[in-house]
Amino acid sequence: MTQPLTARTRLAKAPRTAALLAGVGLLALAGCTDEAESTAANAVLPSADTVLMAQADTAPATPEASTVEAPESSGSVDVADLMAEGPLPDIVIGDADAPITIVEYASMTCSHCADFHENSYPQIKKDFLETGQAKLILREFPFDPRSLAAFMLARCTGDDAKRTAMVDVLFSQQDDWARAENASTALLKIAKLAGMSQDEFTSCLNDKALQEKIVETQQKGQNEFGVNATPTFFINGDKYSGALSAEQMAAAIRAHM
Fold first, then answer.
1. What per-residue confidence (pLDDT) applies to 122?
2. Which of 57, 100, 168, 186 is the most buried (most CB within 10 A)?
3. Which residues are CB-contacts of 145 (< 8 A; sequence separation ≥ 6)?
4. Are 214 and 151 in contact (CB under 8 A)?
C-alpha cells in the first residue's frame, strides 16, 4: 500500500477541482458544488480480489543536482510491443505524431504518482507535450479497489479530454478520497462536479466489462513489460521508475532526441 505524504499541504477542495474541470467543459451547472455534498451512491467499490496487487510503489527519485543528467534506464522493451493494441484504447496527451513517446503506468492511490503529476507533469507538458516534441500515454495500473474505481470513473467521463481532466483532479484531490473513511462518498463528490449523476456514478462502478479491461491493462503491463511499481515510465521503450522531477524527466526525454 502506498503511504500518505507527511508534508503534503491539503488542497482547497471545490474551487481547484472546479477550475480543472471547467477547462474542458466537465463542470456541471452552477450549484454543483453544493449538490456534490448530497448522499453518496450505494455503489460498491470493486472487491480487492479482482485486482492483481502490485509490489510497493517506488520511492521518490533522488533529488536532482545542480546539473541534472538523465537517470539511468533500468531496461528497455520493444516499442512496437509497447504500443500494440491493449484492452483499452490509449489516450494520447500531446501530438500523436510526436517523435518521443512516454508511456506511464500509474496507480491513482500512489502518492508518488500524485507527486509527479502535481510537481513535474505541468512543466513537462508545457516544454515537451505542447511543443510537439513528445506525447504522453497514461495507463492504468491499480494497486487496490479505490484506485480501480477512480480509473473507472475517469474512463466513464465520455471523451479523451474529460478523462485526462478527471485524472488530473483525482491526483490533485488524492488525499480527500484515497484515504477517506467512505471512498464512495468522496468519489461521488468529484464525479458530480464532472457532471455525472448518481445513477451514472453507480452504473460506472458496476461496469464489470470496464473493470476487467482495467485489470487486464495492469496485468499486461506487469507480465509483458515488467512493471511492478508505480510510477513506471517508458520513454521510447526505455524504462524508468520513480517519481522523476521535471528536470530528471526533461533530461531523459532529451537523451532520446
1. 96
2. 57
3. 45, 46, 47, 48, 50, 51
4. yes
Distance CA 37, CA 90 (A): 33
pLDDT tens digits, residue range 236-250?
999 999 889 999 999
What is the enclosing helix (H) or strand (E) of 101?
strand 100-106
pLDDT at 67: 76
Residue 64: pLDDT over 50? no
Other residues' Cβ atoms within 10 Å of the Cβ of residue 157:
23
Q: In what order do the strands lie in the sheet with 134-140?
A: 92-94, 134-140, 100-106, 232-235, 238-241
Q: Comparing 2-6, 174-178, 183-187, which segment has the lowest mean pLDDT?
A: 2-6
User: Closest Cα partner for 243 from 252, 253, 233, 256?
Assistant: 233
- Would you call 138 helix, strand, or coil by DSSP? strand
Amino acid at 83: M
Strands 100-106 and 134-140: parallel
Q: Say how far apart CA 256 and CA 100 lie, in whole Å.
A: 7
Q: Given pLDDT bands bounded at 50, 70 and 90, which one contains residue 68?
A: confident
Dihedral through CA 192, CA 194, CA 198, CA 199, nearest 10?
Answer: 170
Calpha distance 69→83 (Å, rounded) = 27
Closest C-alpha among 155, 158, 97, 128 to residue 233 = 128
Q: How far is CA 167 from the centre of its chain?
A: 5
pTM here?
A: 0.78
C-alpha 107/C-alpha 144 separation (Å) is 8
145 cis-preceded (ω within 30 degrees of 0): no
Contact assessment for residue 91 and residue 138, using Cβ atoms and an 8 Å cutoff:
yes
